[in-house]
Amino acid sequence: MFDEGMVLIIFEILAGLVVIATVMAWVPRNEWWFRGFDFPRLQIIAIAVVSALGLLLWPAPWDTLRWMSLLTLLGCTAYQVKMVLPYTRLWPKQVLLAREIQPKHQVSLLVSNVLTPNPNKQALIDLVCQHEPDILITLESDQVWEDALQVIEPDYPYVVRVPLDNLYGMHLYSRLPLIAPEVKFLLSPEIPSIHTQVKLRCGKKIWLYCLHPKPPSPTEAKDSTLRDAELLIVGDHIEKKEQTCIVAGDLNDVAWSRTTRLFQRISGLLDPRVGRQFVNTFHVDYPFLRWSLDHVFHSTDFSLIDMRRLPSVGSDHFPVLTRLHFDPKMDELQDEVESSAADEKEAAERIEDGVTQAREEHPQHFADPI
After folding, report:
1. What is the pLDDT of residues 35-79, one digit of tens each?
2. CA dist., res. 297 & res. 14, Å (int)
3. Long-range CB contacts (within 8 A, 24+) of 4-8
């Protein structure tokens, strides 16, 4: 038989963990042990609900600690819900569904972090054959992956190859013409990104940015400074050029983080998940520990046809398929995500911090301006 007091203490401990996790994510620090709490907001909410129900319903005497635990827990839960609510159907849609779809104005992208040692190359090849995306972006792809994917090249004549063995290789396969594609190493000689124009079937030239920055973690980067700066460098460039563009890749950040939301405001790009669904892509093997790491953002002159997670290909990430429709009239119907003077100042400071750290870590590699 459970001791009522001991069980109540367990619920109070869970409440304390929720409070600690919420405060840690709220602190504007870049160290991985702070930024790591940006990711599991859905999991924190689940723990908070269990704790709140226990504190409310468990048959034990109420005291000051129980009241304080419950009230603090409810405040933290409300904050966590506020952060993730935009990625549910309860929120207004940021991107409208396409109307009067014209085939020549469509573009489809399949983004897949393949996991370098994953032996199941055929699973991705089968998905490509099944869905026939206009553009395939592979992340963590090395020379072995490049060799395996040669079978799709007759259908994808435009290819950018960056095979690396450091988990940051990247390949771009396209049915649509690529114009002057470049591989850039913005802040590190180890972390590539692909920047190119793509000519749609209707003749419109758009920009495509393929990114895969390093995540803050004890095994990768001690903080998020370079990741954040890379995203904001691209976002600032897009805003200044006022481009029709798409940004896609494994950003190693969640949609609801401070950095990703700042990136959206700085770039003005839209997120088709807002008002719809999370599209949680990582981790394949742990359903309770999943969040959205693989992203597609786009300018206001695109509308959405479809965005969905595809079946596993043996990686720790699910692939994501997104189909967009180019229509200049959507500029008038969709509001650009706007930035404030404070946003511009924060972005400039974080870019400067990233460039400074990059120069310290790689003195022979000058930060490559876009």
Report:
1. 999 999 999 999 999 999 999 998 888 999 999 999 999 999 999
2. 36
3. 4/58, 4/59, 4/60, 5/60, 7/54, 7/58, 7/60, 8/54, 8/55, 8/58, 8/60, 8/66
